[in-house]
Amino acid sequence: RYVTDENLPVLYVLTGHGEAELSSSFESAVEKENISVSTLSLLTVDEIPGDAACILINAPKNDLSEEECDMLLSYLQSGGKLILLTDPLEDGMTRENLDALMGEYGMTEVQGIILETDREHYAFGAPYYLLPELQYHSITSPLRENGYYTLLPIAHGITTDASLREDLSVTELLTASSSSFSELAGYAMSDYEQEADDPKCP
User: Fold this and answer.
1) What is the pTM of this model?
2) Which of 12, 16, 18, 109 is buried most deeply by CB count within 10 Å?
3) How far is CA 97 from CA 40, 86, 127, 165, 166, in A?
């Protein structure tokens, strides 16, 4: 594609909200697919650039503004793509605008940190080092076929509901086991025991 295509796809990495740095291995893997990586601040543009193949929001520490989310929603409704990676919320934090954007696509963030009670679904003796169940999909098939595990340390849950819109379908790729739960105390947890108000997974 580098030789034959005049316009190569661009992955825009959002900045301005305390996002985590991309690892050099991730950037290298993306560039080997002949996708260029560029940063983007929505505060300095009126719309998402026309050459954006995808927007990546990598673990923001702070919420986006309503205006930024409106810009992203307009981009998505026009066929754009978004990769949104989020960490569990720290005490006192909220992501109301990002949550509203996720809600447009049938996803709701679950408070807390997921803990597994099934030893086959966590690694290194730590119930928060999740080994989620890989669902059948073309994205996960290389992992399944080669016997790889996917490790998710310190993750929060996301519930899905595709019934919100007729044109919406939701595909789950990684799921917690039926014996897991979300520890609402989050980073302040003192043990790995499930409390009465801790939501049951998946």
Assistant:
1) 0.87
2) 12
3) 18, 13, 30, 20, 23
